[in-house]
Protein backbone atom coordinates (compact mmCIF):
# COMPACT_ATOMS: atom_id res chain seq x y z
CA UNK A 1 0.00 0.00 0.00
CA UNK A 2 1.47 3.40 -0.95
CA UNK A 3 2.54 5.60 1.96
CA UNK A 4 0.16 8.39 0.90
CA UNK A 5 -2.87 6.09 0.97
CA UNK A 6 -1.83 4.60 4.32
CA UNK A 7 -1.36 8.12 5.71
CA UNK A 8 -4.88 9.04 4.65
CA UNK A 9 -6.26 5.88 6.30
CA UNK A 10 -4.46 6.67 9.56
CA UNK A 11 -5.67 10.25 9.61
CA UNK A 12 -9.19 8.93 8.98
CA UNK A 13 -9.05 7.45 12.49
CA UNK A 14 -8.17 10.93 13.72
CA UNK A 15 -11.15 12.27 11.79
CA UNK A 16 -13.56 9.85 13.46
CA UNK A 17 -12.28 10.69 16.94
CA UNK A 18 -12.21 14.44 16.43
CA UNK A 19 -15.74 14.51 15.00
CA UNK A 20 -17.06 14.13 18.51
CA UNK A 21 -14.24 15.18 20.80
CA UNK A 22 -15.04 18.88 20.98
CA UNK A 23 -18.72 18.18 21.63
CA UNK A 24 -17.84 16.62 24.97
CA UNK A 25 -18.40 18.84 27.99
CA UNK A 26 -15.84 17.21 30.27
CA UNK A 27 -12.47 18.78 29.49
CA UNK A 28 -10.58 15.65 30.56
CA UNK A 29 -12.55 13.53 28.08
CA UNK A 30 -11.73 16.06 25.37
CA UNK A 31 -8.03 15.84 26.19
CA UNK A 32 -8.07 12.02 26.30
CA UNK A 33 -9.76 11.85 22.89
CA UNK A 34 -7.26 14.33 21.48
CA UNK A 35 -4.41 12.21 22.84
CA UNK A 36 -5.59 9.19 20.86
CA UNK A 37 -6.24 11.25 17.73
CA UNK A 38 -2.74 12.79 17.92
CA UNK A 39 -1.19 9.32 17.95
CA UNK A 40 -2.74 8.43 14.60
CA UNK A 41 -2.17 11.90 13.19
CA UNK A 42 1.53 11.73 14.07
CA UNK A 43 2.08 8.60 12.00
CA UNK A 44 0.04 10.17 9.18
CA UNK A 45 2.55 13.03 9.02
CA UNK A 46 5.58 10.74 9.27
CA UNK A 47 4.32 8.79 6.26
CA UNK A 48 4.05 12.10 4.38
CA UNK A 49 7.71 12.83 5.24
CA UNK A 50 6.80 15.64 7.61
CA UNK A 51 8.96 14.81 10.64
CA UNK A 52 8.26 18.04 12.53
CA UNK A 53 4.49 17.59 12.44
CA UNK A 54 4.81 13.84 13.00
CA UNK A 55 6.95 14.06 16.11
CA UNK A 56 5.06 17.07 17.47
CA UNK A 57 1.81 15.10 17.22
CA UNK A 58 3.32 11.98 18.81
CA UNK A 59 4.64 14.16 21.63
CA UNK A 60 1.26 15.91 21.82
CA UNK A 61 -0.37 12.55 22.42
CA UNK A 62 1.65 12.27 25.62
CA UNK A 63 1.26 15.96 26.45
CA UNK A 64 -2.55 15.74 26.37
CA UNK A 65 -2.47 12.83 28.83
CA UNK A 66 -0.17 14.77 31.14
CA UNK A 67 -2.41 17.85 30.96
CA UNK A 68 -5.39 15.81 32.19
CA UNK A 69 -3.71 15.31 35.54
CA UNK A 70 -1.51 18.38 35.90
CA UNK A 71 -2.21 21.97 34.87
CA UNK A 72 1.07 23.49 36.02
CA UNK A 73 2.28 26.27 33.76
CA UNK A 74 5.86 25.05 34.07
CA UNK A 75 4.77 21.78 32.39
CA UNK A 76 3.18 23.83 29.62
CA UNK A 77 6.44 25.77 29.20
CA UNK A 78 8.48 22.55 29.26
CA UNK A 79 6.16 21.07 26.62
CA UNK A 80 6.66 24.10 24.42
CA UNK A 81 10.43 23.73 24.84
CA UNK A 82 10.23 20.07 23.77
CA UNK A 83 8.13 21.10 20.75
CA UNK A 84 10.69 23.78 19.88
CA UNK A 85 13.52 21.22 20.12
CA UNK A 86 11.52 18.89 17.85
CA UNK A 87 10.97 21.76 15.40
CA UNK A 88 14.62 22.82 15.32
CA UNK A 89 15.96 19.26 15.06
CA UNK A 90 13.54 18.21 12.29
CA UNK A 91 13.25 21.53 10.47
CA UNK A 92 12.38 21.14 6.78
CA UNK A 93 10.98 24.58 5.95
CA UNK A 94 7.93 26.75 6.44
CA UNK A 95 5.67 23.82 7.33
CA UNK A 96 7.85 23.15 10.39
CA UNK A 97 7.37 26.74 11.55
CA UNK A 98 3.61 26.72 10.90
CA UNK A 99 3.24 23.44 12.82
CA UNK A 100 5.17 24.83 15.76
CA UNK A 101 3.00 27.96 15.92
CA UNK A 102 -0.16 25.83 15.85
CA UNK A 103 1.28 23.77 18.70
CA UNK A 104 1.86 26.87 20.82
CA UNK A 105 -1.87 27.67 20.90
CA UNK A 106 -2.96 24.10 21.52
CA UNK A 107 -0.37 23.55 24.26
CA UNK A 108 -1.33 26.73 26.09
CA UNK A 109 -5.00 25.77 25.84
CA UNK A 110 -4.51 22.21 27.02
CA UNK A 111 -2.86 23.34 30.24
CA UNK A 112 -5.53 25.94 30.97
CA UNK A 113 -7.93 25.33 33.82
CA UNK A 114 -10.57 27.29 31.92
CA UNK A 115 -12.72 25.31 29.46
CA UNK A 116 -13.70 28.40 27.49
CA UNK A 117 -10.05 29.37 26.97
CA UNK A 118 -9.21 25.76 26.04
CA UNK A 119 -11.83 25.82 23.28
CA UNK A 120 -10.66 29.20 21.93
CA UNK A 121 -7.04 28.01 21.81
CA UNK A 122 -8.11 24.79 20.06
CA UNK A 123 -9.98 26.84 17.45
CA UNK A 124 -6.92 29.04 16.87
CA UNK A 125 -4.41 26.18 16.81
CA UNK A 126 -6.65 24.04 14.62
CA UNK A 127 -6.96 26.91 12.16
CA UNK A 128 -3.18 27.14 11.91
CA UNK A 129 -2.95 23.34 11.41
CA UNK A 130 -5.56 23.74 8.67
CA UNK A 131 -3.22 26.16 6.89
CA UNK A 132 -0.39 23.63 7.35
CA UNK A 133 -2.47 20.82 5.85
CA UNK A 134 -3.60 22.96 2.92
CA UNK A 135 0.01 23.76 2.06
CA UNK A 136 1.00 20.10 2.49
CA UNK A 137 -2.08 18.99 0.56
CA UNK A 138 -3.26 16.10 2.71
CA UNK A 139 -6.96 15.82 1.81
CA UNK A 140 -8.17 13.88 4.85
CA UNK A 141 -5.88 15.99 7.06
CA UNK A 142 -7.59 19.11 5.69
CA UNK A 143 -10.98 17.58 6.41
CA UNK A 144 -9.84 16.70 9.95
CA UNK A 145 -8.95 20.30 10.71
CA UNK A 146 -12.08 21.72 9.06
CA UNK A 147 -14.21 19.38 11.19
CA UNK A 148 -12.09 19.98 14.31
CA UNK A 149 -12.31 23.77 14.02
CA UNK A 150 -15.99 23.60 13.05
CA UNK A 151 -16.79 21.23 15.91
CA UNK A 152 -14.82 23.41 18.31
CA UNK A 153 -16.82 26.45 17.22
CA UNK A 154 -20.09 24.54 17.60
CA UNK A 155 -19.05 23.29 21.04
CA UNK A 156 -18.06 26.80 22.08
CA UNK A 157 -21.40 28.14 20.86
CA UNK A 158 -23.38 25.39 22.61
CA UNK A 159 -21.67 25.83 25.97
CA UNK A 160 -20.84 29.54 26.05
CA UNK A 161 -23.15 31.44 23.71
CA UNK A 162 -26.47 29.59 23.47
CA UNK A 163 -26.30 28.30 27.05
CA UNK A 164 -24.91 30.81 29.50
CA UNK A 165 -23.02 28.73 32.09
CA UNK A 166 -22.94 29.62 35.74
CA UNK A 167 -19.14 29.27 35.78
CA UNK A 168 -16.51 30.03 33.10
Automatic annotation (TrEMBL):
Keywords, ordered alphabetically: Membrane, Transmembrane, Transmembrane helix
InterPro entries: Uncharacterised_HI1736/YgjV
Highest taxon of source: Bacteria
Transmembrane segments: 55-72, 84-105
Protein name stated in the entry: Inner membrane protein
Organism for this UniProt entry: Paraglaciecola arctica BSs20135
Amino acid sequence: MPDFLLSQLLVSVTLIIECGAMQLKNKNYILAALSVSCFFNGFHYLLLEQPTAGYIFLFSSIRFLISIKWKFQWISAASLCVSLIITVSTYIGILSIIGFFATIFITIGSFSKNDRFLRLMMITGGSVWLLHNLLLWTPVGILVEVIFVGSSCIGYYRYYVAHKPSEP
